[in-house]
Automatic annotation (TrEMBL):
One of its GO terms (molecular function) is calcium ion binding. It comes from Octopus sinensis (East Asian common octopus). One of its GO terms (cellular component) is receptor complex. Keywords: Disulfide bond, EGF-like domain, Endocytosis, Glycoprotein, Membrane, Receptor, Repeat, Transmembrane, Transmembrane helix. It comes from the Eukaryota. This is Low-density lipoprotein receptor-related protein 8-like.
Length: 344
């Protein structure tokens, strides 16, 4: 029961309702996986996927390095690492964020941390040979040019906030959120899991056609026919539309995705002319804009979802742009350049 094996033959021994009735807690020295399996807690974060879904090795929060505890003769950087106290305020940055050289008050005479915390808003550390340094708690940093003023750090602007989808900055910390339809109340933040009902489909380009694969029933279905040679492929989930580049007709095309797996879509040419070798394609799902690369023209272009308002974004310093992807959340665009001299 709840061991990922269908012992009953109808999977009734692996349902969520049944598995949640099994005692699986830290008190029992056990860990519940995302797929509801229950494993010994000593197998968690051991470098092996014992759950089968990777949830026991999740580095977002479960297996992240523990905060280092500093010794009495050490100084804790804002980035949480520890350094020797004699390295503080020596005009050499030993902390990754230089917090050991910010907030220094040297040769302060009688002023030290024992008197009103040295006037520091958060932490105060006495220096060897006199003086002190003010530092901020986690989630804050010393204000530029100041020695005794801490301001909030916007973790959502940093790359290490560990949020898989959305990030909401709060004073001294941050909170991870999920897009609508991705929050499972049984999963701890910041995990996001697709919860909407409906089919899961994988679309793939197969030359003269585009096929849909159902990973649940493990079956292939024809989605689009009468295509000369599809190359790049992108799916606009919000608008149930499939976009692709065609190497023979040298254009960008699209088709509505039917919710019925046995329906075949009808290709529509967006009439984007003067393309030589269209390859990668990506969709900005917030605006519906379409981005694509032209390997021969050495350009990256964009157009509205119906092909209008075409504009060439990049036409210099490209050798052979190929794959492309747009991150709608951050506003960044990424692509590969597969030239033989300096691929990047």
């Amino acid at each position: 029961m709840c061991d990922s094996d269908d012992d009953c033959g109808d999977k009734s021994d692996e349902t969520r309702e049944v598995c949640l009735q099994i005692e699986c807690s830290k008190k029992e020295r056990k860990f519940r996986c995302n797929n509801l399996l229950c494993i010994p807690i000593w197998r968690v974060c051991n470098g092996r996927d014992n759950c089968g879904d990777g949830s026991d090795e999740n580095t977002h929060h479960l297996c992240e390095p523990k905060e280092e505890i500093c010794e009495q003769d050490q100084f804790k950087c804002t980035t949480k690492e520890c350094i020797d106290s004699f390295k503080v305020c020596n005009e050499i940055a030993d902390c990754a964020d230089k917090s050991d050289e910010i907030g220094c008050i040297k040769n302060a005479g009688a002023v030290n941390c024992s008197i009103d915390n040295g006037g520091c808003p958060h932490n105060c550390t006495d220096l060897e040979g006199g003086g002190m340094i003010c530092s901020c708690r986690s989630g804050f940093k010393m204000k530029d040019g100041k020695t005794k003023e801490c301001v909030d750090v916007n973790e959502c602007e940093l790359s290490n906030n560990k949020c898989p989808q959305l990030c909401n900055n709060i004073k001294g910390s941050y909170k991870c959120l999920c897009h609508e339809g991705f929050q499972d109340p049984l999963l701890p933040t910041p995990k996001c899991k697709y919860t909407k009902e409906g089919k899961i489909s994988i679309f793939m380009s197969v030359g003269s056609g585009i096929r849909r694969f159902d990973p649940i029933i493990k079956e292939y279905m024809s989605t689009l026919l009468s295509i000369q040679k599809s190359q790049g492929l992108a799916v606009d989930i919000e608008r149930s539309t499939l976009y692709w580049t065609d190497m023979i007709s040298k254009t960008v095309m699209r088709s509505y995705i039917s919710q019925k797996s046995d329906n075949v879509g009808i290709p529509q040419d967006l009439k984007i002319s003067n393309l030589d070798e269209p390859n990668g394609i990506s969709i900005d799902w917030t605006s519906g804009n379409v981005y694509w690369t032209d390997s021969k023209k050495k350009t990256i272009s964009v157009a509205a979802k119906d092909g209008r308002y075409r504009y060439t974004l990049i036409k210099t310093e490209l050798r052979r742009p190929y794959a492309i992807v747009v991150n709608s959340q951050t506003g960044w665009m990424y692509w590969t350049d597969i030239n033989s001299y300096n691929p990047r």
